[in-house]
Specification:
Layout (H helix, E strand, L loop, with lengths): L1 H27 L7 H23 L6 H24 L13 H22 L4 H21 L4 H35 L2 H50 L2 H6 L2 H43 L1 H48 L1 H6 L3 H53 L5 H43 L19 E8 L9 E8 L4 E5 L6 H8 L7 E6 L2 E2 L5 H7 E4 L10 H5 L8 H10 L3 H6 L17 H13 L5 E5 L7 H12 L4 E5 L3 H6 L2 E6 L2 E6 L1 H7 L2 H10 L4
Helix pairs in contact: 1-2, 1-3, 1-4, 2-3, 3-4, 4-10, 5-13, 6-7, 6-9, 7-9, 7-13, 9-10, 9-13, 10-12, 10-13
The chain binds adenosine-5'-triphosphate.
Length: about 700
Amino acid sequence: MKEVVLCGLFILFLDAVLWWALWAGLLLLRFSGCGGLAGVWAFGAVKWIILHVFTSLLTDGKPQVELRRLVALLCLLTPVLESGRMVMAPPSGTYTGPPPDFSMLLLGLMAASLACVVWEKGLCGTGKMTKEKSKQDARRLLMRVLKYFRPDSLYLIAAFSFLILGVICDTYIPLYQGRVIDMLRGQAFQINCYYAVGQLALISFGSALFSGMRGGIFMCALCRLNKRLKHLLFYSLLQQEVQFFEENNPGRLSSRLHSDVDRMGRTVALNANVLVRSTVKTCLMLHVMLGLSWNLTVLTCLEMPLLALIQNKYITLSKELKDKIQDCHAKNKDLAFQAVSGIRTVHSYRGQENELRRYNEALDQLCKINRQSRIYSTVFCLFRRMVSVGIKILMLLQARSLILSGHLSIGSLVSFFLYQKPMSVNLREIMYAYGDTASTVGVISKVFSYLDRTPKCKKAGVLAPEKLQGRVVFQNVTFTYPSEDKPALKSVSIELKPGKMTALVGPSGSGKTSCVSLLQRLYEPQEGQILLDGEPLHHYEHKYLHQKVALVSQNPVLFSGTLKYNIEYGLKDCSYEKLRETAKRANADEYISELENGYHTDIGECGKKLSEGQMQCISIIRALVRDPQVIILDEATSKLDVEAQHTVLQEVLSCGRTVLVVAHQLKTVEKADHIICIEKGEVVEEGTHQELMAKRGRYYRLKEELFSKKS
Ligand SMILES: Nc1ncnc2c1ncn2[C@@H]1O[C@H](COP(=O)(O)OP(=O)(O)OP(=O)(O)O)[C@@H](O)[C@H]1O
């Protein structure tokens, strides 16, 4: 690095020497200039060759890319600037080339070095590869967001057209204001004055109208984009396997779905808006400013790379913090949601203090990160102001020398400063929009990572036989939860026969629920397979399987809505008659009909308006209405009265169904045709109740441990 800096300094020195040589030569040969624009370009080309050879000599023929860029910049800077000046503000007399001016030479060398430093350090310097890669990623992500706007192309075309029209009107308002002021001074006829006022009114009206239209249409497009993205994201989330929801907590997912998608669309759309508006304005203003003084314009433009350098650093630092803040917000939401939704448990265990402490800790964490973010923003603001003030001082010094040399009038200087402020604002807006978009990249990439995620489960097959016996066979099934090391089930082989009730018995954590989850295809076993009528479960069509294999759990999950909605949940063609018929069989039609709105009664959030027994009853009807062939009861009748329990079990066992009961009560176990004892993930004993009791083995002892108190 030191070597490059040293070579760079030598190159700058040689460049200055070459300029002095040129000016000395012109003076000695009594030439008034270096031959116009062609001469400037020719000198640039000659200088390039000399500096290139010099750089090669300094670096043993292998000049670093940074040095080559510096040489190119030094040689092109003056010809490009002079050409620009000729186009924007052609001189009144014959153009002879840049005058021998030491301050301008110094300014040129400084500008070139600064641009190189900004480029190398800020834009493609240290950690080039990673930065370049992350930039490419960011670009790819932004392009992808823009692609989602495709269905709204017409809206966007209209919005951007109104935007450009609005900007043009905005830019011309001061011009017409000036004209009206001139008219007011009585320099024109009355009619001309009215005409100018009319023009000003028209252009102001146009500006307001176009700006309003632009804002409205942008908002409209944004709403449509948000709707589309939220739909897609929700769809993608619903496809994920159960493990995904265990790894990503619901608060975070819901935050991604709502605030992050909103932020993503808003940032991209609004920043595109700002970028286009400010760029058009900047170009128009630059045109006028170059006409007034190109030297001062160069100084004004110097502010931008410097600010970009500081902004770049700020973005890198704040991006990480913004991600952390998002996560903290999601965590806070999650904690509050958990406490409020589980308020009964919180009250009954007097957990208020505990919940408050946890919430407070999360708030503290958020506060800490926010404080850090504020510090960064203050330091950034300070540096930005310092750069602006420094540039202003330089401009005043330069303006003084220009006025003294007669190259600039006081009036032009005032006009220049009047343009300079909005110009800086525009440049700042452009950089802010860039920075803001860059800092949203983290959010965008997270949303897209969920959108692109492929569920880690086997694809469902197409089997959907009309007749299903319901014979279930676990063949040497070994299963470990993805987050665990120890297997929950070890080489389990069991059979569930049609028309029979099988009870799974075992101490807590023995693997009963794991068997049920595998049968429901919520997870996939690592070894062995589960067969339904001789076919592996994943060969069956997803919807068919979940219709034919139904689970009724001890704590059923019901959704807000009516009883009808909850019973026919997920079914497309369930008639009202069938629904009532099933409810009758489950002994529930009578009490449902007595409700004010019958089956259309709203059951409140998550069925809070129902008793626990009623909730169990509804979930049993929900399972039965699907005509399942295999039914899993995870202590599903524990909250029902004895008569209702009997009716439900009778109903469940009818039609030759295969019934698997995860038993917690002795009376349920005793009713089973077959009992499977499971312990530490292994089947330890199986048979009928009588057989196992006579054997006096594991089941006998387990029965004593598990059911003696309950029964
Ligand atoms: N989602 C999960 N992620 C990781 N490990 C789990 C998960 N669910 C259960 N386990 C572990 O798997 C083992 C078997 O649990 P399982 O829930 O199948 O037992 P169980 O017999 O149904 O218990 P209980 O009668 O208390 O419901 C236990 O060691 C448990 O800690």
